[in-house]
Every structure is written in structure tokens, then in C-alpha cells.
Amino acid sequence: MTASLATFGVYIHVPFCSRRCDYCAFATWDDKAGQIEAYMAALLAEVRSATDTGMPLAETVFVGGGTPSLVPGESLAKVIEAVRKSPDAEVTVECNPDNVTESLLCTYRDAGVNRISLGVQSMVPHVLAGLGREHNPDNVVAAVETIRRVGIPTFNLDLIYGAHGESVDDWQTTLRSALALEPPHVSAYALTVEAGTPLADDSVRHPDDDDQADKYPIADAALEQAGLANYEISNWAVAGHESRHNRLYWAQADYRGFGCAAHSHLSGRRWWNVRTPERYVDLVNRGESTEAAFEQLTTDQVAAERVQLTIRRREGAALADIAPERRVEIDEMANDGLLVLEDDRVMLTPRGRMLANAITLRLT
Ligand SMILES: C[S@@+](CC[C@H](N)C(=O)[O-])C[C@H]1O[C@@H](n2cnc3c(N)ncnc32)[C@H](O)[C@@H]1O
Ligand code: SF4
Predict the structure, then answer these.
(1) Is pTM beyond 0.85 here?
(2) What is the tens place of the pLDDT at every residue in 270-309?
(3) Separation of alpha carbons 228 and 154, rounded Å
(4) In 3D, which of 266, 243, 357 has the Cα closest to residue 309?
(5) Does ligand 2 come within 6 angstroms of the Cβ of 66?
(6) How far is CA 281 from CA 15, 33, 37, 81, in A?
(7) Substitution site in 16, 26, 95, 134 for ligand 1 pocket (most atoms within 8 Å of beta carbon)
(8) How far is it, in rounded angstroms, from Cα 232 to Cα 220?
(9) How many angstroms is it from 152 CA to the middle of ligand 1?
């Protein structure tokens, strides 16, 4: 289940959206559509150059954003095809339900895409409006039908809970409507307030901790009952449909990111590209490095991050990875019903999953 250290993944960033959602702090722009063509050409050039200089075979490819489904399917297909992949690689593209058409998905499928991640967030129109989202929930139903019709074998639905104006009934409606589509994978995130976003400036719309603490167990129960097992705090899947790309990150494996603001990790060296598409395109066109900065992880950092990442997964963290002097804390948290200790592994209980950040601080 755990990705081996030999595993290698590729992330491709597409920094364009038709409209910026009020809560989103990702590197994406809604006023730079004029740069799409030059950006896709630069992505292709960077991927080809890495491939020519010995980039390992990718076990997973994840195209994220932004809104990858906004750029012409053929140009994205060329970039995906340029990545050398293992024959059974997982290849995911994040899509906005509004952009999904049969011809777009056929183009993806023919380029080797075998997983779609749909940004659903909510199935209730007034909740979507409160999030500053523009899509119509009916488009989610149509998008899932199209994914199935063209034969893309698996997909994920991204949901967000805790938006202003979302009642518990609204959240149950979202879960019920999403589960009616029989998704093999669901990610459900607590809405977070990110600095610099319109949501951050509007305290009336800030999420309420207690409301989110009520909604997480509702999601967990509904998803588990529908046959999707929780395998990481925010992720549930039918067996065999877990995201291999996410598992690779959680296993601290190597990955290479292409595009502006993309992060890479190779044997303890982590680096990230320049943030804006124009700087990225300019550097690629001049044949210069797109790296903005890097850090060399220390042994202590690697060890602490291992616990932070592994404790979030169903299989938990290895006791051997946690400093022996934390044993008292572990026993205390186990007594408080936040952790269980089983076969030399430490796992979060459902209640512990909601307090994961505080628990991790006590373990590292
Ligand atoms: C960067 S988005 C890209 C997907 C696509 N553009 C979309 O939004 O439909 C990936 C996912 O991150 C989640 N996300 C982004 N900002 C968030 C926030 N502030 N709080 C919680 N989840 C967030 C959303 O669920 C979103 O689907
Ligand atoms: S949440 Fe998705 S669609 Fe909305 S601005 Fe961010 S990347 Fe774009």
C-alpha cells in the first residue's frame, strides 16, 4: 500500500481559471487567458527537456490547478504524452464540472488519462454562491455521466464543508447527491481561510470550528456507509481507488513539478518554481532554470515530516518513527481516545482525525 522510495511522480500545474473562487489562494489567475498558448508551449518544452535529460519513469501524473480543463485538450494531451510513464501509471486531471465535454474527455483518455478529479465543493446552489463558485450542480451529474460514458475508469469528487450559510441539512444534501453518483473516491475538506483571499477579508463568512466539527463525522459516516473507507483524514475511497499520487506525497517519495509555482522533491532537496506564468514562460524560452528557491531537508526535518504525513493515513505512523520520549504523550492521547496503538503503529481515532494538527505537534 505504501509507495516505495523508488516511486516517482509528476505534477503539472495549469494556473488559469474562468473566475477566482473567494476562498482560493492557489497560484491561479482569471485574467491571463491570453497567455494560455505560450504557457502550454513552455510546459511542453520543460517536460521534454527533463525527459531528454533522464527524468525517471513516472508512476503517477497529476495535472492540477487552477483549472486544467480550461485549456485546449490537445495541448494538455501533448504535455501528458511527453511524460515517460510506467505502463500502469495513474494519470489524473483536475476538471471543473462546467468544462467537461465528451470530446475533451476522449482527448484526455486517448492521451492516457485514467482518473478525473472534479471540483464539486457543494451540490447546493446557495452554498456554491457563498463560496464564490459559478457552476451549476446539474453539471456535476452530467460530468460524471460523461466520465463513465467515455470509459475513464475512476474519478474523485472534491467537496468542501463549513461554508457560510451551509446548514447541516445542506451538507447532508451535498453528501447524498454526491453519493448518488456512486463515486469511487471523495475528498472532503474543511473550508480554510487563506490569507489574501476575499474570504479572509470578510469575517462574517469565516467558518465556525464547531460547525465543521459537527460536519466531519456526518461525512465520515455517510461515506463509510456507502462503501468508501477513510484512508487519510480528508480522503475516502472504494478499495483499490485510493489516489496513488497522494500516497506518493505522503510516503515522502520523489516527484517533479512542472509549471509556475510547482514544487519538486528529489532525495531530500525540495524546490519550487517562480510563481507567475509570465516569468515561467520567459525563463523556459530563454533556456534558464525556472527554480525560484530550494531547501535541503535535514535528517530531523525528514523525520518530523514523516510523522506529520504518515499519522494522517489510515495505517498511521510507525512507533519507531516517533521519538521515545514522546511515549508518555502517546499513552495520554490513547487514554483520551485520540489515538490507538496497534502492532507498533500509532493511528488516529475518528475523534483524533479532527484534532490532527494539535496531535502531530505533541508527537514531533
Ligand atoms: C486548487 S483546487 C483545483 C480544482 C479546481 N480548480 C476546482 O476548484 O474545482 C483543488 C481543491 O482544493 C480545495 N480547496 C481549495 N482551496 C480551499 C480552501 N481554502 N479550503 C478548503 N479546500 C480548498 C477544493 O476542494 C478544490 O477542489
Ligand atoms: S478553487 Fe479551483 S476553480 Fe476556484 S479559483 Fe481555486 S483553482 Fe480556480
Answers:
(1) yes
(2) 999 999 999 999 999 999 999 999 999 999 999 999 999 9
(3) 13
(4) 357
(5) yes
(6) 12, 14, 10, 20
(7) 26
(8) 11
(9) 22
